[in-house]
């Protein structure tokens, strides 16, 4: 779907004045790993100055996607997916595991941190989600932003979002459940019972709702795209304009897919720490998501951290934060581990969406206690 000239003119009228122009592109339905590789290609191209601020739409064949910091085996029914042709992919953003198929619409924004004049990741998330929700209300549903990163109708999830800063480039993405086969979702994902309990639900299917269910029939994808663009234009004071995918983006996406994002090693990610002998673990549920830490000790008696593994569905900026935190904890004296976490966040200047350094500290200390037995 290309953003029509008529729609361009309508948006231009809505955005008189010095509104930042956002190129609009659509990569259609592609293999999940190739779509994620294109995400990173857009970030790299934007940082290099070869593309401007952009809004992109995308769709997937049946695919289970895990967040950047999650264990694939813990979140996804891998054997079922492989046996039934459901793709497996790992996002470059944080957050939880999701099931994607052609009945859902993905969207993402890539832009400079100065474009909207908002420096806080949390505030940007709120503004973008509120704009997306306002756009979806144009379709006749009462979509609302629910912190930290959901768009809901009457308490049921219509779409999730997430993003991060990479240098001065913000990457922020979301989904809209236009139509969905709940059975396929439940078969592909392992939804933790405690997550359902937090929402007072008996099943994952009860947590979500689709535009088809709300409206009686699924609206055309083009109509959903136009509604979102109108919401972004008004809510973010930007001017979406139809554009084209560049050859550089396609070439970068192909290289990133073949060298990293499309590889089995990248998708597999960290092993399920619960299955690794000798690790003590602890989890904490925070407003910013679940943080799980597993620790292996060394020394007789144990006095230092030999290895730390941090997983979960939280969002952090920049993407390397968790690898760097694990590295900082390696070799740390047990009595100093909590302070090591605090010093890491203080000197790194990282941003954690709705979670706090103290949440990571408490979870690390609890994991040490579990490892000590």
Could you please describe the fold and organization of this structure?
The protein has 373 residues and is α+β, with helices and mostly antiparallel strands. The protein has 2 domains: 264 residues, BirA Bifunctional Protein, domain 2 (2-Layer Sandwich); 100 residues, CO dehydrogenase flavoprotein, C-terminal domain (Enolase-like, domain 1). The strands form 4 sheets. The protein has an 8-stranded mixed β-sheet with strand order 7-8-9-10-6-2-1-11, with helices on both faces. It has a 3-stranded mixed β-sheet with strand order 4-3-5, sandwiched between helices. A 3-stranded antiparallel β-sheet has the order 12-13-14, with helices on one face. A hairpin with a 2-residue loop joins strand 9 and strand 10.
Count of distinct strands:
16
Rg: 21 Å
CATH homologous superfamily assignment of the largest domain = Bira Bifunctional Protein, Domain 2
Helix content range of the residues, please? 25-40%
- Just name the CATH architecture of the largest domain: 2-Layer Sandwich
Total helical segments: 14
For this structure, the CATH topology of the largest domain is BirA Bifunctional Protein, domain 2
CATH class of the largest domain: Alpha Beta
Characterize the biggest β-sheet. 8 strands, mixed
What class, by secondary structure content? alpha+beta
Give the SSE order as H and E letters.
HEHEEHHEEEHEEEEHHHHEHHEEEEHHEH
Q: Give the neighbour order of strands across the main sheet.
A: 7-8-9-10-6-2-1-11
Percent in strands: 25-35%
């Amino acid at each position: 779907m290309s953003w029509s000239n008529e729609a361009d003119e309508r948006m231009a009228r809505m955005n008189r004045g010095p509104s930042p122009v956002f190129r609009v592109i659509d990569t259609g339905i592609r293999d999940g790993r190739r779509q994620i590789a294109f995400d990173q290609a857009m970030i790299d191209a934007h940082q290099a100055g070869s593309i401007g601020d952009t809004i992109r739409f995308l769709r997937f064949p049946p695919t289970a996607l895990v967040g950047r910091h999650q264990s694939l085996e813990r979140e996804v029914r891998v054997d079922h997916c492989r046996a039934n042709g459901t793709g497996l992919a790992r996002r470059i953003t944080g957050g939880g595991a999701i099931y994607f198929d052609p009945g859902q619409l993905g969207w993402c924004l890539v832009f400079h941190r100065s474009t909207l004049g908002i420096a806080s990741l949390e505030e940007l998330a709120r503004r973008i989600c509120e704009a997306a929700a306002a756009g979806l209300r144009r379709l006749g549903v009462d979509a609302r932003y629910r912190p930290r990163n959901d768009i809901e109708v009457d308490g049921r999830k219509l779409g999730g979002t997430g993003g991060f800063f990479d240098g001065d480039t913000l990457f922020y993405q979301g989904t809209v459940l236009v139509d969905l086969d709940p059975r396929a979702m439940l078969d592909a994902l392992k939804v933790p019972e405690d997550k359902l309990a937090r929402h007072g639900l008996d099943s994952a299917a009860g947590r979500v709702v689709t535009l088809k269910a709300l409206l009686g029939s699924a609206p055309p994808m083009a109509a959903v795209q136009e509604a979102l663009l109108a919401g972004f234009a008004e809510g973010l004071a930007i001017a979406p304009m139809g554009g084209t995918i560049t050859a550089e983006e396609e070439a970068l996406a192909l290289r990133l897919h073949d060298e990293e994002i499309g590889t089995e090693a990248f998708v597999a990610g960290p092993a399920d720490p619960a299955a690794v002998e000798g690790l003590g673990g602890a989890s904490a549920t925070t407003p910013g998501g679940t943080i799980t830490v597993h620790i292996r000790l060394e020394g007789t008696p144990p006095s230092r951290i030999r290895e730390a593994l941090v997983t979960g569905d939280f969002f952090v900026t920049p993407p390397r934060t968790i690898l760097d935190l694990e590295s900082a904890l390696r070799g740390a004296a047990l009595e100093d581990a909590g302070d090591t976490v605090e010093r890491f966040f203080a000197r790194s200047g990282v941003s954690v969406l709705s979670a706090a350094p103290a949440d990571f500290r408490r979870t690390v200390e609890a994991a040490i206690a579990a490892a000590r037995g």
